[in-house]
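Sample pair:
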Amino acid sequence: MPKGSAELTAARREEIMDACESLYRTMNFKDITLKEIGKVTSFTRTSIYNYFQSKEEIFLALFEREYREWTADLERIAAASVTSDPDQLASEIADTLSRRELMLRLLSANLYDLQDNSRMERLIEFKQTYLNSTAAMDRILAAGYPSLSDTDRRKTLLTLYEFLHGIYPYAYATSKQKEAMDAAGVTYEEYTLKELAYEGMRRIFRSIDR
């Protein structure tokens, strides 16, 4: 049992976040409520308000945790000998993204609702964590492509993060979506998350050398 109010609060927040993540594996965002979260924790719905003001804040905290863990992976790449080979670098980063399914799913969700229904202090915490991830990626680009200007690195980062927003829906089409595509005559090719991440990153990094 954690000792001290700060440790206890952190542990309880983590329990609530873990419960929310577990529900999100089988439920849609709109169907998850504080009542449902309370059913799979040791808290009542009322008690959850002591730690999160809304379900959006819980999802935002989950999002922040995912970004923090991904940033740690990026930091390890940045601290090593960063390769300038676009295929190898794409493979290394794709490997980190293959472990961040939840982060990529949240990226494809309605971020406006998550952020608009969270308190400013929580949103600032999230934005700082997001900034840390872009800083780590910027260090990778600076090390792998030292001739790249600051402006071009910023543009590359923008392209890279825009790309990340669209990976999840392509890797995890639902059966209903597949049925609709089939009826509409749309060809659907299945790719894993890692395959999509690798191909997208490879194209972005290769464009740097052109």
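The chain has a mean pLDDT of 92.
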